Amino acid sequence: MESRTHDDTDTAATTDTDDRPVVLAVDDEPRVVEAFALWLEDDYQVLTATSGEEALDVADDSVDVALLDRQMPGTTGDEVLEELRARGLDCRVAMVTGVDPDLDIVEMPFEEYVQKPVDGDTLDDVVGRLLDLEQYDDSVDDLYAVVQKRVTLEAELPESALEDDDEYQRLRERERDLQDETRAVIDDLDDDEFARLF
Amino acid sequence: MAASGPSDDRSVPDLDALAQDAEFFRSLVDNGSDAIVTIDEHSTIRYANQAVERVFGYAPEDLVGEKLTSIMPERFSAAHFDAVDRYLDTGDRQLDWSNIELPAEHADGHEIPLSITFEEHVHEGDRVFSGIMRDISDRKSYEETLESLQDTARALMEARTRTDIGECAVAAAVDVIGFPLASLYRHDDASGVLRPVAQSDDAADIFDEAPTLADGTLALQAFRTGDPMEYHEGDDRDVPVHRPDGPVAAEYAVPLGDYGVLLVANTDAANFDDHTKHLVRILAANTEAALARAEREAERERQNERLERFASIVSHDLRDPLQSARATTALAKAGDETALDDLETIFDRMEELVEDVLTLAKQGQAVGETEAVSLEAVADDAWSTAGTDDATLDVDADLPTLQADGERLRTVLENLFRNAVEHGGDAVTVTLRRTDDGFSVADDGTGFDDVDPEQLFDYGYTTSEDGTGFGLSIVRDVVTAHGWTIEASESAAGGARFDVHLR
Question: How far is residue B479 from each of residues B39, B122, B195, B386, B482, measured CA to CA in Å?
């Protein structure tokens, strides 16, 4: 499947004028990215790719949010994520996957972990939240990612497995540090904004 | 007993008269087997009987006139004098005076564990103290051995694998009970012989490679009868011996329930006394308990792993098709008509997954009753469901009969055949051959290409669009449950080949 933007109007003509945020959806199942595009195209420009290789071809600094499947033949979502960061692309990333999260996610540079199956509303919320992050300081972004990971792990793994785990404890520590760092920013957030993020 | 015995005319010496005879008591005390030593208030030995020679290595006359502390370990000396002084002053006894266990010092310097009873009496106006001392070395060493065996029992309970347990038991037989030759054998139910699990260093030196014990060995007979068996060189009973001309002169085999046998042996023809045999049986009982426990642990771990796998299968392998279904439904609603057809494919795939997960749940359990099964008959059955019209099954004329669970074996073949058809195409030719140690299933398809052989049998691993990735996992589980192994390689025709090894 060719990568393309899903837009009602001609892509080439609108790319420059269209200032809607750009979402890159990556999944090896063509139907899945088609549906993601269908769900998101009212509010966003959606780029799609059905393999990790294709995703890396398409991705550039116009991308605001990337939705990455983890398990794909060839280049995996984890590898795409690494490469995006290696290129210095500053997009927000959500892993949208059937894979159970494990402690290996602690060190992965994404913002949110979403377990399949997702529907249009969920996906819309995820993208909206990730875009909201853009307006804040990097430390808020980091705090968000750390909290997301902690919550994801706590939902998935038994307390006993987490307590003794160094990665998890480091995550907790980082969260405390970031909380101190971001206190000033968070104090400025109004209640709605705060509730939406955390 | 004289009263109840038949009347007899011999005159029985009157006990009262004996009691008057000092010579009788002198003889009794002098010749008793317990050492008797009498000291005065200054701890000087005034009397020692004959038995002191056997117990302490001194002639009685050499001890008389010496201090009692000369047959005591140095470290008790001061305490002894204090205790005697205090007793003489106050009448307080530091120690219980009857059957107290204390070590003494032999003339050659080694310590002898004693059980001592003290008596106080007055002789010709002097207060004297007599100790009746029994050498309890044998009992002590037996107790110590029992205690060490308890440590061994704890170590056995902590050992996790059969090999660890075997090595722990063998080490105890050598170090604690004292047999240089010791080994642990497990019973191989499939072939009916005993196979070595662990053996002592000396045994390894004698036998190079530990032998497999078959019919005609003491160990196998002990295993079959469930009773310990014993052999001595020159034994005229009809006892089976592994190597009658070998260096082993005495052997004792204790069965370990259904697991195998603990075998101890010696190159000396020394007899096994009852104590020693008892110790070996205690060790064997502890070993058997440890093996049973390790097996239960391993089974529980397998169950847990299986549970975890199911959790992950359900969450991972059903989440993806669920996402596809949800996506496809959304597209169909938006007007994409071909999406509805896709939906059916997705549902088929999910159904297949559910069935595979169920099969996996059933197959994962231990095999049921095994019986002699014709491989050819099972292959025919399996082909009737897994084969296709254009595909060919080529079967050896002399396929073996296997000891197997027929239903499970059928699943193995079905999955291997299905794998061949899936990857080799409809017109694939599948060959089922007898091999030296089992059978092989090969095809002339495209082979494994760049498939990682390590991953081949993993849960959920597939390179095919419509495979669930559980077929070969099921094969491996069933094969393992039979105690067999499976191996994948490239077939002569460049396709896939699976070898099932029965041993």
Answer: 79, 85, 21, 18, 5
């984890």: which residue's tokens? A78
Q: Is the Cβ pair B320, A98 closer than 8 Å? A: yes
Residue among B311, B317, B331 whose CB faces A31 most closely:
B331
pLDDT for position B255 = 95
**Per-residue tokens: B492:** 């002569």
Q: A22-50, pLDDT tens digit by residue?
A: 999 999 989 999 999 999 999 999 999 99
| A-chain residue closest to B328, CA distance | A31
Pairwise CB contact (< 8 Å): B324 & A31: yes
Task: Give me the sign of the Cα torsion angle B131, B132, B135, B141.
Answer: negative
Ordered by where they begin, the domains of chain A are 1-134 (3.40.50.2300), 136-198 (no CATH)
Q: Is B284 within 8 Å of B168 (Cβ atoms)?
A: no
In sequence order, the 6+-apart residues with CB closer than 8 A to the CB of B403 are B190, B370, B371, B372, B373
- Rounded-to-integer distance, Cα B240 and Cα B263, Å: 14
Q: B330 at the A interface (CB within 8 A)?
A: yes
DSSP B288: H
* DSSP assignment letter at A28: S
Among candidate residues B494, B392, B388, the one with its CA nearest the CA of residue B445: B494
Is residue B308 within 8 angstroms of chain A, CB to CB? Answer: no
Using an 8 Å Cβ cutoff, are B239 and B222 in contact? no
Q: What band does A14 get if pLDDT is binned at 50, 70 and 90?
A: very low
The answer to whether B447 and B490 have CB atoms below 8 angstroms apart is: yes
Scanning every residue of chain A, which has its alpha carbon at the shortest distance from the alpha carbon of B317?
A98
Q: Which residues of B239-265 are buried (b: 16+ CB within 10 A; e: fewer)?
A: ebebeeeeebebbbbbbbeebbbbbbb
Share of chain A above pLDDT 70, in %: 84
| For residue A182, pLDDT beyond 70 | yes
Sign of CA dihedral B239, B245, B250, B254: negative
Cβ of residue A36 closer than 8 Å to a chain B Cβ: yes
Q: How far is CA B93 from the centre of its chain?
A: 50
Backbone angles phi, psi at B471, to 5 degrees: -55, -55
Low-confidence ranges of chain B (pLDDT < 70): 1-15, 18-19, 208, 234-246, 269-271, 309-310, 313-314, 360, 362-368, 450, 452-454, 459-469
The mean of the pLDDT values for chain A is 83
| A65: pLDDT strictly greater than 90 | yes
Tell whether A119 is within 8 A of chain B (Cβ). Answer: yes
Domains of chain B: 15-135 (3.30.450.20), 140-294 (3.30.450.40), 366-501 (3.30.565.10)
Strands B401-404 and B371-374: what pairing?
Answer: antiparallel
